[in-house]
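Case study 2.
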Amino acid sequence: MALTIDALMTREVVYLPADTTLDDAAQAMRARDIGDVVVTEGPALAGVVTDRDIVIRAVADGRDPRTVTLGQIASRDLVMIRQDASPGEALDLMNAKAVRRLLVCDPDRQLVGIVARGDLVSSL
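Prediction:
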Protein backbone atom coordinates (compact mmCIF):
# COMPACT_ATOMS: atom_id res chain seq x y z
CA MET A 1 0.00 0.00 0.00
CA ALA A 2 1.35 3.42 -0.97
CA LEU A 3 2.27 5.98 1.66
CA THR A 4 -0.23 8.83 1.95
CA ILE A 5 -0.35 12.23 3.62
CA ASP A 6 -2.69 10.74 6.23
CA ALA A 7 0.24 8.78 7.67
CA LEU A 8 2.54 11.82 7.80
CA MET A 9 0.34 14.71 8.88
CA THR A 10 0.01 16.25 12.31
CA ARG A 11 -3.52 15.62 13.49
CA GLU A 12 -3.57 18.18 16.29
CA VAL A 13 -4.70 21.38 14.62
CA VAL A 14 -4.67 24.42 16.88
CA TYR A 15 -7.24 27.10 16.05
CA LEU A 16 -6.86 30.65 17.36
CA PRO A 17 -9.04 33.71 16.70
CA ALA A 18 -7.69 36.41 14.38
CA ASP A 19 -7.53 38.89 17.27
CA THR A 20 -5.05 36.74 19.23
CA THR A 21 -1.76 38.56 19.77
CA LEU A 22 1.42 37.07 18.33
CA ASP A 23 2.80 36.80 21.85
CA ASP A 24 -0.14 34.64 22.93
CA ALA A 25 0.08 32.58 19.73
CA ALA A 26 3.80 31.97 20.27
CA GLN A 27 3.08 30.83 23.83
CA ALA A 28 0.44 28.40 22.53
CA MET A 29 2.86 27.05 19.92
CA ARG A 30 5.57 26.53 22.52
CA ALA A 31 3.19 24.83 24.96
CA ARG A 32 2.07 22.37 22.28
CA ASP A 33 5.47 22.03 20.54
CA ILE A 34 4.03 23.02 17.16
CA GLY A 35 5.08 25.49 14.48
CA ASP A 36 1.75 26.71 13.15
CA VAL A 37 -1.80 27.71 14.03
CA VAL A 38 -4.94 28.03 11.96
CA VAL A 39 -6.50 31.48 12.26
CA THR A 40 -10.27 31.79 12.54
CA GLU A 41 -12.75 34.61 12.11
CA GLY A 42 -15.93 33.40 13.74
CA PRO A 43 -16.64 29.91 12.41
CA ALA A 44 -14.58 30.44 9.23
CA LEU A 45 -10.96 29.56 8.56
CA ALA A 46 -9.17 32.84 7.86
CA GLY A 47 -5.53 31.88 7.42
CA VAL A 48 -2.45 30.21 8.78
CA VAL A 49 0.41 31.64 10.84
CA THR A 50 3.70 29.85 11.39
CA ASP A 51 6.47 30.48 13.86
CA ARG A 52 8.52 31.74 10.91
CA ASP A 53 5.75 34.21 9.98
CA ILE A 54 5.91 35.69 13.48
CA VAL A 55 9.65 36.23 13.14
CA ILE A 56 9.73 37.48 9.53
CA ARG A 57 6.48 39.47 9.33
CA ALA A 58 6.55 41.01 12.78
CA VAL A 59 9.62 40.72 15.00
CA ALA A 60 12.18 41.34 12.22
CA ASP A 61 10.20 44.42 11.18
CA GLY A 62 10.26 45.80 14.72
CA ARG A 63 6.54 45.19 15.31
CA ASP A 64 5.47 44.45 18.87
CA PRO A 65 4.23 40.85 19.25
CA ARG A 66 2.21 41.96 22.29
CA THR A 67 0.00 44.16 20.09
CA VAL A 68 0.17 42.69 16.57
CA THR A 69 -2.53 40.08 15.94
CA LEU A 70 -2.64 36.87 13.97
CA GLY A 71 -5.16 38.44 11.61
CA GLN A 72 -2.66 41.14 10.69
CA ILE A 73 0.04 38.73 9.49
CA ALA A 74 -1.84 35.55 8.52
CA SER A 75 -1.33 33.93 5.14
CA ARG A 76 -4.84 34.12 3.73
CA ASP A 77 -4.30 31.77 0.81
CA LEU A 78 -5.28 28.44 2.36
CA VAL A 79 -3.60 25.68 0.37
CA MET A 80 -5.24 22.31 0.98
CA ILE A 81 -4.51 18.75 -0.06
CA ARG A 82 -6.49 15.53 0.33
CA GLN A 83 -5.37 13.16 3.06
CA ASP A 84 -5.10 10.33 0.51
CA ALA A 85 -2.60 12.25 -1.66
CA SER A 86 0.97 11.03 -2.00
CA PRO A 87 3.99 12.77 -0.48
CA GLY A 88 5.15 13.56 -4.02
CA GLU A 89 1.86 15.30 -4.81
CA ALA A 90 2.17 17.33 -1.62
CA LEU A 91 5.74 18.42 -2.43
CA ASP A 92 4.68 19.40 -5.95
CA LEU A 93 1.83 21.50 -4.54
CA MET A 94 4.12 23.12 -1.97
CA ASN A 95 6.60 24.03 -4.68
CA ALA A 96 3.88 25.36 -7.00
CA LYS A 97 2.33 27.52 -4.26
CA ALA A 98 5.64 28.42 -2.54
CA VAL A 99 4.47 27.23 0.89
CA ARG A 100 6.06 25.04 3.56
CA ARG A 101 2.85 23.62 5.03
CA LEU A 102 -0.44 22.34 3.65
CA LEU A 103 -3.79 22.00 5.33
CA VAL A 104 -5.01 18.43 4.98
CA CYS A 105 -8.68 17.73 4.31
CA ASP A 106 -10.88 14.67 4.18
CA PRO A 107 -13.16 13.84 1.23
CA ASP A 108 -15.79 16.25 2.64
CA ARG A 109 -13.19 19.09 2.67
CA GLN A 110 -13.10 19.12 6.47
CA LEU A 111 -9.73 20.01 7.96
CA VAL A 112 -8.13 16.94 9.56
CA GLY A 113 -4.48 17.92 9.89
CA ILE A 114 -1.44 19.82 8.69
CA VAL A 115 1.57 18.47 6.83
CA ALA A 116 4.90 20.29 6.76
CA ARG A 117 7.68 20.03 4.20
CA GLY A 118 9.89 18.40 6.85
CA ASP A 119 7.29 15.66 7.37
CA LEU A 120 7.43 14.85 3.66
CA VAL A 121 11.19 14.99 3.25
CA SER A 122 11.68 12.55 6.12
CA SER A 123 9.39 10.08 4.33
CA LEU A 124 11.44 9.99 1.12
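The chain has five helices and six strands.
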